[in-house]
Write a structure and sequence with these properties.
heterodimer, A: 355 residues, alpha+beta, Heat Shock Protein 90, 3 domains, 5-stranded mixed beta sheet, 5 strands, 62% helix, elongated, B: alpha/beta, Arc Repressor Mutant, subunit A, 2 domains, 6-stranded parallel beta sheet, 9 helices, 6 strands, 13% strand
Chain lengths: 355, 215
């Protein structure tokens, strides 16, 4: 049993008031931190890294208010609470109201330090993950290009030679046409498979246009799953970094796997990509990308099982951590719409497609 | 057909294959080859060819690494300086060309993309199409039906007003050549390509009505 717990047990009544002050002090700090972070996020850092911390701070405040007895708190918040308690345990346990008041600045300082430390470590972790992902994306792109420029080029030469041999008037020593035709088919098959591998390494159009990359991916997906997909993509789109496009495409792929389970009935699904201009500030417009996946299910049981999958929870964190965005859903009767929001580099106006 | 063709590709064997194909198909053509952007550009400046067949992934100069960005830069240069040049991009991965879509739409010469996975006969079709000033972009490079306002005006004048090309040019205040160029762009947008025994303009009219571009 921890010193805090034993102390509470022995002097329960005496310490009740002290602990109430203790927790309310902590809650007050966390609430202030939440407001402070919220202020930041509204001012400049919309969709920024503060979102996670802000959420943690507000959860912590909430938990402190309820004396940490609330059920269903998320793991991150409990972890932060444990950190706070760990620090508090190194401080002498207050027995009176005056002692509590005296110790409050120390608690405030510790909490602020904790919040700052959490923020820095969260940012560091996020940066590292993004760097890692960018490196991997670039590496796979090079590998994909190597396939195109190496083995596929050689295959092309072989193919043209065979095609020339199959031209009317050309003769070969043994069983000319059938052998060459079979070789030609084999080459076509190898070419197709190499192209598929190359596309797996670096999806088509990923470096050039997110709408085209999504279109290509969805067409493949539709072919493989015989899905009832409605696709709405913009003809103009501001080009983003390849790694960012790759994350969005991967999130879409995983999301479709989760929200479109194998079902005896075809689930009508709509995928839409659009750029939104958030107009809460004229000086600083905040455009963001929105990828929407809307699925209509045959019953509520299916929806419930999908909404509680752990993969969906992981995907939300991936979206927040890697894409610096959000993944959330809205439900209306048997239709659920998933939204992926992420900050765009600039206003949507240029590039691929026609105006 | 008496014409001059420049082929730019860094792979020697690919060059041989392409040149043999061209010699078979155009026995009277003068064919010149280059393996880098620099030599290719010099050849084009000197010869002013009727057709350029270019790979996207080429090196800048001898000894340099082949990069598709180099091919993109060469195409940009060619379209800026030779707006009526007929170009065929023969590449194993033509997808990065999507970056040049606005320029291709404005290019007045022929422009076709021939993925190296195409069969010999399909490749020859793309060569003929470019040589005749046609445009072809793979469907996967388009996001639905992409039609410019001036192309819509051309369709309206041709099918609703019943005007001939000369009258359309006068009405739109553009040259006859630009009208012809608009036709090739509209054909590509509607995926109407030359086929035996088919009237292209009639096919365009049918497809445009199907797509709701004209009444």
């Amino acid at each position: 049993m921890t010193p805090i717990a034993s102390s509470i047990k022995s002097n329960k009544k005496e310490q009740e008031g002290a602990w109430a002050t203790y927790w309310s002090g902590l809650a007050s700090v966390c609430t202030r931190a939440t407001v402070y972070l919220e202020h930041f996020s509204h001012q400049e850092l919309w969709f920024s890294n503060f979102a996670g911390l802000q959420f943690s701070a507000s959860s912590l405040a909430e938990l402190c208010h309820s004396g940490c007895r609330k059920r269903g708190c998320n793991v991150l918040s409990v972890y932060r609470i444990v950190e706070v308690v760990f620090f508090i345990e190194s401080i002498p346990v207050p027995h009176t109201r005056s002692q509590c008041v005296a110790i409050q600045p120390v608690i405030i300082l510790i909490c602020m330090m904790l919040l700052l430390w959490s923020m820095v470590s969260y940012l560091e972790l996020q940066r590292s993950m993004r760097w890692w992902f960018e490196q991997r994306t670039a590496h796979l792109e090079v590998q994909s290009e190597r396939i195109h420029n190496g083995v596929m080029q050689e295959l092309f030469v072989l193919r043209r030679d065979l095609e020339a041999a199959l031209e009317p008037g050309q003769t070969s020593a043994t069983d000319p046409n059938q052998t060459d035709q079979a070789k030609l088919w084999a080459i076509e098959k190898i070419h197709h498979q190499l192209e598929q591998i190359s596309d797996e390494l670096s999806p088509p159009y990923i470096a050039d246009s997110l709408p085209l990359a999504i279109q290509s991916h969805l067409q493949n997906w539709q072919r493989l799953h015989a899905a009832d997909l409605e696709i709405e993509l913009p003809t103009t789109w501001e080009q983003e970094a390849t790694a960012q496009n790759q994350i969005i495409l991967m999130v879409l792929n995983e999301l479709l796997q989760i929200v479109m389970p194998i079902s005896p009935v075809k689930l009508p699904c709509c995928v839409r990509l659009l750029a939104q201009n958030k107009t809460n500030s004229v000086e600083c417009p905040k455009p963001f990308g929105e990828l929407l996946v809307k699925v209509t299910y045959p019953n509520a049981v299916m929806i419930s099982s999908i909404l509680h999958t752990k993969e969906l929870r992981y995907l939300r964190r991936v979206m927040r951590g890697l894409a610096r965005g959000h993944l959330f859903h809205r439900r209306r009767e048997l239709t659920v719409t998933w939204y992926c929001h992420w900050r765009l580099r600039s206003a949507p106006s240029l590039t691929v497609g026609l105006d | 057909m008496n014409c001059t063709i420049v082929v730019i590709d860094d792979h020697e064997l690919v060059l041989d294959g392409t040149v043999n194909l061209l010699k078979d198909h155009y026995p009277n053509a003068t064919i010149q080859i280059a393996q880098t952007r620099q030599t290719g550009q010099t050849l084009i400046e000197q010869l002013q060819p009727d057709l350029v067949v270019v790979d996207l992934s080429i090196p800048e100069s001898e000894g340099a690494t082949a990069r598709f960005e180099t091919g993109i830069e060469l195409l940009k240069f060619l379209m800026q300086h030779y707006p009526t040049l007929n170009i065929v991009v023969q590449s194993m991965n033509p997808k990065p060309l999507v970056r040049l879509k606005p320029m291709i739409d404005d290019h007045e010469g022929g422009f076709t993309i021939a993925d190296k996975k195409l069969r010999r006969d399909e490749m020859l079709t793309k060569l003929d199409m470019a040589l005749n000033g046609g445009t072809y972009l793979p469907k996967e490079m388009k996001l639905g039906l992409e039609v410019k306002p001036e192309w819509l005006e051309l369709l309206r004048l041709a099918y609703q007003e019943g005007l001939q090309d000369k009258a359309i040019a006068k009405e739109m205040n553009i040259s006859d050549r630009t009208v012809r160029n608009y036709w090739t762009k509209v054909q590509d947008a509607l995926s109407v390509y030359p086929e035996d025994n088919q009237n292209l303009r009639t096919q365009v009219g049918i497809r445009a009505r199907e797509e709701g571009l004209i009444d």
